[in-house]
Automatic annotation (TrEMBL):
InterPro entries: Arrestin-like_C (IPR014752), Ig_E-set (IPR014756), Vps26-related (IPR028934)
Gene3D superfamilies assigned to the protein according to its UniProt record, in alphabetical order: 2.60.40.640
Similarity remark: Belongs to the VPS26 family.
Organism this protein belongs to: Solanum pennellii (Tomato)
Protein's recorded name: Down syndrome critical region protein 3 isoform X1
Gene name of this polypeptide: LOC107012449
Domain of life from the UniProt record: Eukaryota
Length: 319
């Protein structure tokens, strides 16, 4: 015996002002009686503070309660029987009932390191005390409502920031040949991005006394959680995009084009108990004997053969 939930949309993406529709599919070797079929819809912001993070004492670890967004039960069928074989039972429910005040804002689905925002629908087929209930759970994805007045139309005006990197802009120790010979990199990058569009920009290696090994762009998330009177902030890597491999011709403009991963990003959030921000870090790795020995290094710890520039990034949802 098995039961599963099939949603009407293959991508499982819905908006709070739309109905969520689908089917409950049962596969039974023989017919069974049941005491009702119900759907439970749960949504919450789950918060986790790592012990010692940002000075927060370890006794805080794991004690933060989730923020409930939605918690409702929908009755699909009253008690009865389900025939043997495969049976499809349709269902439909609204996340926001007309006139109903939500418990919390409908934040977009997000899978982070210390913060996750999830929307789950579960089916429960109760069969009484003598039989185990049949159940299944599926996650569906929520995006901002299209009808919101403060949701900007596409295309948004790109806000470009101009940056440059030299040996004098770096705050960590550099290779002696980099300090003496120097380098200069200039470029521009969009700092206000729609989640449905790529991050775009360009950079130019104007000069460099040391050959370049690689140019990479790290997409980072900064998750902050309010614990008592303290704020625990943790930055973590989402993805790395290499835009150049090997020594780059001087004076040649390189395009920056980064596609955002859907579930690992969301609109930038600044809520009371938590916030989710993003930034990109441009890292240039110069050729040296040390870089060959330490080919893999932590993105948080820059070595003497690295040069880096960080740019804050605001992500928004557009119509």
């Amino acid at each position: 015996m098995s039961v599963e939930i099939k949603l009407s949309r293959s991508n499982r993406i819905y908006r709070p002002n739309e109905p969520v529709e689908g089917k409950i599919v049962t596969k039974l070797s023989s017919s069974i009686s049941h005491q009702g079929i119900r759907l439970k819809v749960n949504a919450s912001v789950n918060l986790q503070v790592r012990g010692g993070s940002a000075g927060v004492i370890e006794s805080f670890y794991g004690v933060i309660k989730p923020i409930t967004i939605l918690n409702k039960t929908v009755e699909v069928l009253k008690s009865g029987r389900i025939s043997s074989g495969s049976t499809e039972i349709p269902f439909s429910f609204w996340l926001k009932d007309p006139g109903e005040k939500p418990l919390e804002k409908f934040y977009e689905t997000y899978h982070g390191g210390d913060i996750s925002i999830q929307y789950l629908v579960s089916v429960d087929i109760s069969r009484g005390y003598l039989h185990k209930s049949l159940s299944a759970t599926m996650e569906f994805i929520i995006e901002s409502e299209k009808g919101l007045e403060n949701l900007p139309e596409k295309p948004i005006s790109p806000e470009m920031v101009i940056f440059y990197m030299t040996q004098d802009t770096q705050r960590h120790s550099l290779l002696p040949e980099l300090k003496s010979g120097g380098f200069r990199v200039s470029g521009k990058m969009c700092t206000l991005c729609s989640l449905s569009d790529p991050i775009e920009g360009e950079l130019t290696i104007e000069s460099s006394a040391v050959p370049i090994q690689s140019i990479d762009i790290h997409l980072l998330r900064l998750e902050s959680i309010l614990v008592g009177e303290k704020i625990a902030t943790e930055s973590s890597l989402i993805q790395t995009t290499q835009i150049a491999d090997g020594d780059v011709c001087r004076g040649m403009t390189l395009p920056i084009y980064i596609i955002l991963p859907r579930l690992l990003t969301c609109p930038s959030i600044f809520a009371g108990p938590f916030s989710i921000e993003f930034k990109v870090t441009l890292v240039i790795t110069f050729q040296s004997e040390q870089s060959k020995v330490h080919s893999k290094s932590n993105f948080k710890t820059l070595k003497s053969w690295h040069a880096a520039e960080s740019i804050p990034l605001e992500l928004i949802r557009t119509k």
